[in-house]
Specification:
By secondary structure, this protein is an alpha+beta fold. The chain is about 30% helix and about 20% strand. Among the domains are: about 60 residues, no CATH class; about 120 residues. The chain contains ten helices and twelve strands. It has a seven-stranded antiparallel beta sheet with strand order 6-7-8-5-11-10-9. A three-stranded mixed beta sheet has the order 1-3-2. A two-stranded antiparallel sheet has the order 4-12. This is Ribonucleases P/MRP protein subunit POP1. Pfam families: POP1_N.
Length: about 290
């Protein structure tokens, strides 16, 4: 009787889908979005998950160290070919405003005694990326915030300039708070409103066609209602999805925008890095209006 009871229980609990159903694109997207609700995945997550030991840090799921089978491949690519690292988990803050206003206030959180600053000629032109250490306003050499890298957008003839500052996710909140204080950016320029979890009109038409053919059925949730595919999660692991991501100053006119996970960042290491870039990226033709 006990054996028969266990057999019946197994039959009742085995409601998992077959592999063909699980591997459908619509089901894969819903499953991937469910698994990254707490820890955001990078664009290259699936590739790394097959070859690296993954860890959960700073709200992301990152590859920490390669497996035994990929150590030699990574070393060979780094010494003889080209090795690509995904640094998209680094946070990016965008500053937009007049050049003299930006330089005047940014000079308060860095010092020329430590090396390059934001007004270095080679970096200010936008040709090179700079790196420096940030401090709290007018507190050098005390109260260090941490190291950052920055790059200016080349001049286009207008008074306003754009500056992108890259930092580690552990430093983002402190640096963002300091930037908002020195530029007096208190009012959010635009509030972030998450998109409702619904399919687009085109996706809905495709589902209707599939249903009419009888080849695929919509998945149902626990309540029996027809569920819809979950959209890709927007945001990053260091920001609340309901928090504003852009602030403006009424006094200086400077706008601070959080561009984390909106701009991807990769690092190429190896002797063939330059040739890989030249073969991958093609220069666009300039079109004058």
């Amino acid at each position: 009787k006990q054996a028969e009871k266990t057999v019946h229980q197994k039959k009742e609990q085995s409601k998992t889908k077959c592999r063909k159903a699980r591997r459908r694109h619509i089901n894969l997207v819903a499953e991937f979005n469910r698994r990254q609700r707490k820890n955001i995945w990078l664009e290259t997550h699936i590739w790394h998950a097959k070859r690296f030991h993954m860890v959960k840090k700073w709200g992301y799921c990152l590859g920490e160290s390669p497996t035994e089978k990929s150590y030699r491949a990574c070393y060979r690519a780094m010494t003889k070919h080209c090795l690509l690292q995904d640094l998209s988990y680094y946070c990016c803050l965008e500053l937009t405003g007049k050049e003299n206003v930006l330089l005047k206030q940014l000079a308060r959180i860095c010092s020329i005694d430590t090396g390059l600053t934001f007004k270095e000629a080679c970096c200010l032109s936008g040709r090179f990326e700079g790196s420096l250490n940030l401090y709290r306003a007018d507190r050098y050499p005390e109260d260090m915030l941490g190291p950052v890298t920055f790059i200016w957008k080349p001049r286009d003839g207008s008074e306003n300039r754009q500056l992108w500052i890259w930092m580690h996710p552990a430093l983002k909140q402190d640096i963002l708070r300091e930037l908002k204080a020195i530029f007096q950016c208190s009012e959010p320029e635009e509030l972030y409103i998450p998109e409702p979890v619904t399919t687009s009109i085109q996706e809905g038409k495709q589902m209707d066609v599939v249903l009419s053919l009888g080849k695929k059925r919509k998945k149902e949730d626990k309540e029996g209602e027809k569920a819809v595919p979950v959209k890709k999660i927007i945001g990053d692991g260091t920001r609340d999805p309901f928090q504003s991501y852009s602030w403006i100053s009424q006094n200086t006119g400077v706008v601070i925008s959080d561009r984390t996970m909106e701009i991807l960042r990769y690092r190429l290491i190896g002797p063939l890095s330059h040739s890989v870039l030249t073969e991958t990226l093609k220069a666009a033709s300039l079109q004058t209006v």
